[in-house]
Amino acid sequence: MLEVKDLTKTFGKMTAVSHESFTIRPGEIMGVxxxxxxxxxxxxRMLLNFLTPDSGAIIWNGQPLTADAYDQIGYLPEERGLxxxxxxxxxxxxxxxxxxxxxxxxxxxxxxxxxxxQVKGKRTDKIKDLSKxxxxxxxxxxxxxxxxxxVILDEPFSGLDPVNASLLQDGIEMLRDNGAAIIYSSHDxxxxxxxxxxxxxxxxxxxxxxGTVDAIRQSFGRTKLFLESPLTREQLxxxxxxxxxxxxxxxxxxxxxxxxxxQELFARxxxxxxIPEFRQAPPTLDEIFRMKAGAxxx
Amino acid sequence: MHKFWxxxxxVYKKNLHSGSWLFLVLSPLVFAGIAGLVxxxxxxxxxxxxxxxxxxAPALSQAIVKTSDGDVHFRAYSSAKKANxxxxxxxxxxxLTVTTTPVIGAxxxxxxxxxxxxxxxxxxxxxxxLKLQQTAAxxxxxxxxxxxxLSPAKVTTKTVAIEDGQQVAKNSSAxxxxxxxxxxxxxxxxxxxxxYGSILAQEIATEKGSRIMEIxxxxxxxxxxxxxxxxxILALLxxxxxxxxxxxxxxxxxxxxxxxxKSFLAHIDFSILGSQTTLIAVLFFVVGxxxxxxxxxxxxxxxxxxxxxxxxxxxxxxxxxxGYFLALVAQSGNSPLLQVASYVPFLNIxxxxxxxxxxxxxxxxxxxxxxxxxxxxxxxTWVVVGVYRSNVLVYSDANFMKRxxxxxxxxxxxxxxxx
Lengths: 298, 419
Description:
The structure holds two protein chains of two kinds.
Chain A: E1 2-11, E2 14-24, E3 29-33, H1 40-47, E4 55-60, E5 63-64, E6 73-76, H2 88-98, H3 103-116, H4 132-144, E7 150-153, H5 162-177, E8 181-185, H6 189-195, E9 198-203, E10 206-212, H7 213-219, E11 224-228, H8 233-237, E12 242-248, E13 251-256, H9 261-269, E14 277-281, H10 285-293
Parallel strand pairs in A: 3-8, 3-9, 6-7, 7-8
Antiparallel strand pairs in A: 1-2, 1-4, 4-5, 9-10, 11-13, 11-14, 12-13
Helix pairs in contact in A: 2-3, 2-4, 4-5
Chain B: H1 2-16, H2 19-45, E1 49-54, H3 58-65, E2 72-77, H4 80-88, E3 94-99, E4 105-110, H5 120-138, H6 143-150, E5 159-163, E6 166-170, H7 174-209, H8 212-217, H9 222-255, H10 259-266, H11 276-301, H12 309-330, H13 336-341, H14 348-357, H15 363-391, H16 400-418
Parallel strand pairs in B: 1-2, 1-3
Antiparallel strand pairs in B: 3-4, 5-6
Helix pairs in contact in B: 1-9, 7-9, 7-11, 7-12, 7-14, 9-11, 11-12, 11-14, 11-15, 12-14, 14-15, 15-16
């Protein structure tokens, strides 16, 4: 279990991360979201021991996270890098040996991993002769083949086509099922919503959201209403508590200041009986992100 | 420790297979081989001149034949007619007709197109010696008297160097050898430090530029990685020397009995190789290679992207060339600039061994400069290991010095935080 407790890091007068706390249990996937400069990469760098926090603690399985835990970590930096002139097998072997694996074990596992990620190319091919997509797959294999217990992925989905993104998602879920604690950052809320158990949102180095995806969304209340009924745009606009109206299919998407307004609208919309659509939901993660990122102090 | 060897073997094996390293190792061998072959064929063509000796006194003929050497090969002929016939068939280069009365005299006929012309002074000297023996015999002189007559006047020479106002004896040929030694040493130290520095700088710069460094530093501590790489590069250097030792051994086995090698080696005084000068030069070389390698690690780790890799090599080349030119200046005379440069880190690596070999400074100064170099190496390594870890976080397009300052301030901030 990874416990981040009250972490603060400053660079001169600039506070990169302020009183950050969260916990990731084994078999749990934590998504970290936030705008550029929010403190995501600084957080990862402190987890990786590249930077020393000014205050606070990083606890891994009850002990401070130090270089001793390197072999249990899998790390994928935001900008990827491989040795272009190295052969695929040598590349994977080198990175995995640095994580403490034995050469024979690595070589035995390489074929199944190449197959799992559908890498098109032989293990004797040079990295530079592979397509970009296949290079990304090799990079992932090199990051994950030692079955890390703590996986840190900085923007893993950026630059991946949908097929590779879903392969990555499979890989992440496989490690989760294997009991790994996974933390990753992303700008793509769709991915975050689909695979994260837990979510942390950073803004100017502070944690502004922390919890399960569902709990976070519910905490904003069911302020979104999708409605298709005899009520006209003017009638809806005149209703107190309706703050925004946007056309949505044959009906409208309303934003409510109070979820209770939904009950009143339901009664009015169904006064004459059947209507095709009435759905009241919490805001999407994307909307919450924009709401929070655009809030004051942003 | 295990990861140290993983990094070490990776650096070592990767470069061992690289074309540039193989070229570095093989090119001097190829040049040496070509030079050896040229020397061999030249020596093949320098066969002794074939000269017939015709004399009424067979004992005299035999005495002359016995003086045959690498330049002239005498052969006794029983008659002038036979000798001339052989000359006409161009089997001989010349015919030496020796008369004994009243005293020893001779006439030498040589083909104008002879392969090897015989120096007339050589013939004169040979015959003069025989004539002297003949005369001595007729005067009934004994061997001791003859020896006394033949012994030349004795002149002894002594070369001295002035150290601290005192005359210190030097081997007479040592001065010339020292000059040659200094010249070879300068080029050798410059090439090796620059080449290996560049290999390491490129290695690290490529990893930094391609972000591989971040993955490496999340697997293995910066210090372990740093020393693993350094050791890998030094192992390559040792491998290069071993390759030369093996090649030299094989060549020696084949060459040691060749005349041209013997005559060449006879002109060289190898005593300098066992001297204190050489010991100091070797120590400077070792310290120098390591200092430049540490500098290479520093400049390499300051790179932000692949395009900047060449800028990582530039400081190494500039310092290396500065040291080289100062060493060249030293060979044409001493100067205050050189006196100072002999103690300046990076420059003293090439300047001081040359200054020492040329007797511009004494051993005390050389050991002091070596001490400065070692202390600098230790402090420099300690700083660079610290900065190296911070450098992985510095990605900027600013110039080299600005990047260095940024990295240095991160390192200091980290030290404060940890303290």
